[in-house]
Predict the structure.
Amino acid sequence: MSEATLFPPIGMLAELTHRCPLQCPYCSNPVELLKGNRELDTQTWAQLFRQAADLGVLQVHLSGGEPTVRRDLEELVDGLAMRGVYSNLITAGVNITEDRIRALAEAGLDHVQLSIQGARPATTALISHMHSAYEQKLDTARRVRAAGLPLTINAPIHRHNIEEVPEFIELALSLGAERLEIANVQYSGWALVNRDALMPSREAVEKQMEIVAAAQERLRGIMNIDFVTPDYFATYPKPCMGGWARDAFMVAPDGTVLPCHAAQTIRTLTFERFGERTLREIWTDSPGFNAFRGTDWMQEPCRSCDRREIDWGGCRCQAMAIAGDAAATDPACIKSPIHARMGMLVADAQAAAKTDKGTEFIYRRIAQVREPV
Amino acid sequence: MIALRERSIISPDATPSLPGHVRIQYDPVRQAWAVLSPEKVFWPNEVSLDILRHCDGQTTVAGIISALALEYDAAEEDVAADVTAFLQEWTDKLLVKT
């Protein structure tokens, strides 16, 4: 890894907490969740954000868990605004008062991304494991718009709501969202544990892609629809995080600085905590960050592939989970020697769907299960 | 319940501006102007920046074209096509409003 190819990071995902009122079975948090007493305090987060701004971070995504359970969120947003950092609140949108939203807007929050689990109340209740979540989310969306904040609706898509994609599009429009993410679930973290209960069929995925493409055309200039493609049905992998430690990173509630959500599933890597070292030291020098930076680490078929600086080898954690080797080509890639395994895993999930009710989730709870090894 | 919104088509008398969720900002680390928007950062070239800087919600598209033609010492009809196409593209991405 030569110095010349190291750029400053643009984006940072701050998982302020793992606490969350919802229990979605595809949560991207690690399966081993941290309790509230492991979270960084206000001053440490504020210091981390200042170092991030100094380092070149232009956007901070405030996430969790549910970030609004932190009572100091306004203070943290204010600190970001003072530095001109674009702040994006990623929220489940429950248990949030109108005053709180107004206070966040006044503190300088730039944008809100609200997750909705189903376009129907019953689907949202099933997935979030919270009875009144749907109504609360719609209230939050209206309050966000009333506070003058721009709104993205995030719809994580899987077998139980893929038929609701047209309804999600109409719902997002009716809420005045500028943007809608139709985000097919990424099978890491809790989603990997629940893969058989979540994976949609190929037919449903293909139909969904047609619906989204038509809506993108129809709603041009009215609402942006971003489509996060489903890896297991892909030809080429996603450039996960835009390339490992290339222009973004994330921070766990306890201050562990990571290249991506699931990086800790690669047990051979070690990661450092903010406080033990400065953010700049970690970004430039951490062995965990340098492990898969650039293209030098690649094996064949990535190493000689024309797409190596487009896909950056895909997702390291998916390579770990499915190929058993974090330096392998992401099996989502058609050039991966084990690409066929993705189709087999889809078939397994469809078979599982027929044998049980297909809704037997392991819900996201602290200390519920251990990370699959 | 469905919001009655329509795609904006750039006309000479439109008065474009940046919506509240989009801002232009100088980045001292990279020594370049950045456009910050939800989830995305853009690095516009000099011409694009000059167009965006004129999007103040008061100047018409025709006015922007005249001003840029003067600044770049170029024919208005040449500038017009580029400016209109750029603004339409950015309006379609909801990065500019009219």
Chain B touches chain A through 24 residues (CB under 8 Å).
